[in-house]
């Protein structure tokens, strides 16, 4: 991943200044980071930590949106057009982040900016990184204290798909940012600072996609092995994209699920009108909850998606009974004919 520009500005929390100033501040860097293997590894670690976070997906607010726009898009255009310096622009952004940190957080951090290329796509990422105290062994085999970046404690982070933003004015998901569960006001303040508005509900879209898949499996009346194979293929494909922070397209997913009939699942979605977007940013937590229960004994074979347990399927542990509230249509017809 070639890195075009990168820099770190230190965000100082008011509690760490030793003064009565409640605004905190920024200790800026006047020079960019030097390309190195360590910087490449840091970018990889930051991306991995970011993709594992609970995020919002959307776009910059514009005319007609129920949100205030920010100076960020205009400043970013100036930078990309060569009319502004990377270190100066990022320092301005850092000063705004410092105010947010002073209001909602209790510790200082390093604000990392990265302008980099991944394949044909150009990205801009920012991440507020904190430190943790650790240990290392020096050359004399002694245990010594060492301060380390704590990527898991990434309080604020965002990633802009520059290529998509510039090329597709209709896109609603070229910008993603962290949504901290424990700090609603922090998340709202961060979105306002970015001038971001949510354009797609990743967890909701993922749940709808999984519901569409369950309906498809039921409609096709697939054997247990085939059903499990397709479920694993969907989860693996979507999880891989989620780990890279990339959306999945419904047409590509349909091809993965059935090479012989590559449009079968896609046509099912369109005919049933689930209201899904052509591209979906998969939500990893929702995917992890989607697994299949299966078992076979005494001539009885049962298989169903785990998310159905507690709704259309109930398990009575005391009497060792499985209660199916919605009998599949084809099975219901067979039972009627037998009766």
Residue ranges: pLDDT <50 for 5 or more in a row? none
> How far apart are the termini?
65 Å
Helix/strand structural class? alpha+beta
Mean pLDDT metric? 86
InterPro entries: Nucleoid_associated_NdpA
Main location: cytoplasm
Keywords: Cytoplasm
Region (Disordered): 12-31
Your description of this structure?
It is elongated, with a radius of gyration of 25 Å. The model has no long low-confidence stretch (mean pLDDT about 85). It is of the alpha+beta class and about 350 residues long. The longest helix is centred in the last third of the chain and has 21 residues, at about 225-245. The chain has eleven helices and 15 strands. Strand 14 (about 315) and strand 15 form a beta hairpin. It folds into two domains: about 5-200, no CATH class; about 200-339, no CATH class.
Question: What is the element layout, followed by pairings?
Answer:
Blueprint: E1 3-12, E2 25-27, H1 37-51, E3 55-60, H2 72-80, H3 86-104, E4 109-118, E5 121-137, E6 143-150, E7 157-161, H4 162-167, E8 175-178, H5 184-194, E9 196-200, H6 202-220, H7 224-244, E10 248-249, H8 250-257, H9 264-272, E11 279-280, H10 284-288, E12 292-297, E13 300-305, E14 313-316, E15 321-324, H11 329-338
Antiparallel strand pairs: 1-2, 1-4, 3-8, 3-9, 4-5, 5-6, 5-7, 7-8, 10-11, 12-13, 14-15
Helix pairs in contact: 3-5
């Amino acid at each position: 991943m070639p890195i075009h520009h990168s820099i770190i500005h230190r965000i100082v929390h008011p509690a760490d200044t030793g003064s009565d100033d409640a605004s905190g501040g920024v200790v800026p860097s006047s020079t960019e980071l030097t390309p190195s293997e360590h910087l490449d590894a840091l970018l990889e670690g930051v991306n991995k930590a970011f993709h594992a976070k609970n995020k919002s997906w959307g776009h910059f607010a514009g005319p007609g949106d129920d949100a205030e726009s920010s100076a960020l898009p205009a400043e970013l255009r100036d930078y990309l057009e060569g009319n502004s310096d990377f270190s100066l622009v990022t320092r301005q952004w850092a000063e705004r982040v410092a105010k947010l940190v002073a209001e909602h957080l209790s510790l200082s951090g390093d604000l990392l900016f990265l302008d980099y290329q991944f394949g044909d796509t150009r990205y801009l990422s920012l991440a507020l990184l904190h430190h943790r105290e650790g240990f290392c062994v020096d050359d004399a085999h002694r245990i010594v204290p060492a301060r380390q970046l704590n990527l898991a404690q990434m309080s604020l982070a965002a990633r802009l798909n520059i290529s998509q933003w510039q090329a597709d004015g209709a896109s609603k998901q070229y910008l993603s940012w962290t949504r901290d569960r424990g700090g609603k006001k922090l998340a709202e303040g961060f979105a306002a600072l970015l001038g971001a508005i949510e354009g797609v509900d990743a967890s909701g879209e993922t749940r709808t996609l999984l519901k569409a898949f369950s309906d498809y499996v039921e409609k096709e009346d697939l054997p247990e092995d085939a059903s499990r194979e397709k479920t694993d293929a969907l989860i693996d494909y979507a999880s891989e994209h989620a780990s890279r922070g990339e959306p999945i397209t419904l047409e590509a997913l349909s091809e993965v699920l059935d090479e012989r009939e590559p449009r079968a699942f896609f046509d099912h979605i369109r005919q049933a009108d689930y209201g899904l977007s052509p591209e979906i940013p998969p939500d990893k937590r929702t995917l992890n909850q989607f697994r299949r229960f299966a078992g076979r004994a005494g001539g009885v074979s049962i298989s169903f998606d785990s998310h159905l347990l507690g709704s259309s399927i109930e398990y009575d542990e005391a009497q060792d009974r499985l209660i199916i509230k919605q009998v599949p249509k084809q099975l219901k017809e067979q039972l009627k004919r037998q009766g």
